[in-house]
Amino acid sequence: MKQSLQRLNKRLGSRLYSGAFLAPSLVGVTLFFIAPFFVVIYYALIDSPVGQNFVGFRNFQNVLGNLAFQTAVGNTVMFSALAVPLAVILSLGLAVLLEQKIPFKSPLRTFFLSPMMVPVASIVLIWEVLFHQNGAVNDGLANFGAATGWFDFAGIDWLYSPFSQLPIVLLFLWRNLGYNMILFMAALNNIPRDLIEMARLEGGSGRYIFRTIKLRFLSPTILFVTILSVINSFRVFREVFLLTGTHPYGRLYLLQHYMNNMFQILDYQSLAAAAIIMMLAMIAVIGLMFVVEYWYGKDVEG
C-alpha cells in the first residue's frame, strides 16, 4: 500500500512538473492561435463588430459574389497553378543534376541558395530595374531582336501588361528553387543504394531507375515541397505589394490584396469570411495531395 502511494505521488509529481513546463507554450498557443481562430469564425457570422448581429452565412455569400474576390481567386489560382509545378519540377531537376559527377557542384549549390539571403527590398529594387518599361530586360530583347533581325521589339511595361504574372513567377522561382533543391538532394541521398545498384546490374536504364525507384522514394518529399511551394505562392503578396501597391494591374490582384483592402476599410466580416474560404480551399487541396501521395508511395512506405 505504501509503495503504491509512493508511485502515485511520484506520477503526480512528474505530471505537475510536465504541466508547469508546458503551461507557457499552451498559454501562448491558446492566446495567439486557438483564440484568434474562433474570433475569425465569430466575425464571419456577424454583420459587424459594432452591431454583432448573427447573420449566418450571408457574409460568405457576399464574398463569393464579390467581383473583386472572384478576380483575386482567379489570379491566385492561375499564379499557383503555374509557379508551384515549375518550382517542384525545376528544383527536382536541379537536385538530380547536382547528384551527378559534375564540376563546380559546391559553388552551384551556393549560387542557388544565395537568393534566400537577399532582403526583400533589394529583390524589389532589382526587379524594378529589370522589368521596367526602360529596364534591362526590354533593352536586352530589343538589342537581340535588332542584332538577329528576328523581331522588332519596342518594349513593354511588364508589371502593367497581360504578361504581368511572368516577372512574379520568375521572382518566386528565383527565391524558392534553392531551398527546394536542397530538400530533394537530402531525399536522394537517403534512397537505398543497394536497390539502385541491383537495378543497374540487371540492366535498368537511368530513366527506368529514376521512374521506378527514385520517384517512389521521393514521393513524401515531393508532397512536402509541393505543400511548401503552395504556401510560399500565397506569400508572394509581399513582393507584389511592394512592386505595384494596393491595387495592381488586374492579373496581379491576389487574394491577399483583397484581404488587405478589406482590413484597410475595416470590413472585418468580409475579411474573416474570405480567410475561412481560403483556409477550406487549402485544406481541400492539401488533402487531395496527401491522397495522391499515399496512393503512389504506399508500397514504399509500407
Instruction: Give me the number of helical elements.
Output: 12
Task: Kindly provide the name of the CATH class.
Answer: Mainly Alpha
**What is the 3D form?**
flat
Could you tell me the mean pLDDT?
Answer: 83
The H/E string reads: HHHHHHHHHHHH
What is the CATH superfamily?
Answer: MetI-like
In the residues, how many domains can be counted? 1
- The CATH architecture classification is Orthogonal Bundle
| Number of E strands | 0
The residue fraction in helices comes out at over 70%
How much β-strand is present in the residues? under 5%
Calculate Rg over CA atoms.
Answer: 26 Å
CATH fold title: MetI-like fold
Q: How far apart are the termini?
A: 46 Å
Counting helices, strands and paired strands, the structural category is mainly alpha
> In terms of per-residue confidence, which ranges show pLDDT below 50 for 5 or more consecutive residues?
none
The largest sheet is: none
Compact overview of the structure:
The protein is mainly α. It is built from twelve helices and no strands.
Overview of this structure, please?
It is a single chain. With 302 residues, the protein is mainly alpha-helical. It has a single domain (64-301), classed as MetI-like fold (Orthogonal Bundle), CATH 1.10.3720.10. 77% of the residues lie in helices and 0% in strands. The chain starts with a helix and ends with a helix.
Highlighted features:
302 residues; 12 helices; 0% strand; flat; mainly alpha; 77% helix; MetI-like fold
Write the layout of secondary structure elements.
Layout: H1 2-44, H2 58-64, H3 67-99, H4 105-113, H5 120-131, H6 136-148, H7 165-189, H8 193-201, H9 206-234, H10 237-244, H11 255-264, H12 268-301
